[in-house]
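BUG: 3D viewer hangs when loading the predicted structure for this chain

Environment: internal workstation, default settings.
Expected: structure renders.
Actual: progress bar stalls at 90%.

Input used:
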Amino acid sequence: MDKRIKVYHGSEKIVERPLFGEGKRNNDFGLGFYCTASEELAKEWAVSSLHDGFSNCYTLDTEYLNILNLNSPEYTILNWIAVLLEHRLFSIKMPVARRARQYLTDNFSVNVNAFDLIIGYRADDSYFDYAESFLNNGISVEQLAYAMRLGMLGEQIVVKSKFAFSRLKYERFEVAAKDQYYILRKSRDNGANQLYLEMLEEEKDGLYIQDIMRGGIKNDDPRIPRNICE
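Structure tokens produced before the viewer hung:
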């Protein structure tokens, strides 16, 4: 990663001064300022079916920042899910999912608050559904890792610490027209879901969460997919 990078925050408003400590605690990685390296994705995330949005552009100086990249080979797809389980509200439909929550947080959790900056998948509606299916023993970990690449639904960059906030410099904004970007957003999501359904039609062996718990599988097991971002 270059020391100075451009990041974009999709929002319903112009944000010239992101404030440390504001936002929702039940976002993917807890409190933070959620951005992306793609301005087009920021515009898609900014719009709704009813309203235009804004893509806010910033320069971020990453020198001296402690960065957690959950999509690097050091981590697995299960580290990402364990972090989500600590912050997001999941639909726990089966007893196996309750046990899975405890097992994953005990064995795969990462303390995101120890880092200045976090890189990882954005758990939008589709990705969140895939994660819930895995927790409820509906898909294997290999299928989950494959599903996370469907449709290129997006990777986010989250500014976490007060020090990282101080390294942000506002540059400009651009309007994201709902008539253009909501259609693109829905098309991307629908395409990913169609590929996901096609994947489910193929019978494949693999590790399900039940297998992972019964086998006492940990983060260093080579069967757990790594480097999930292409």
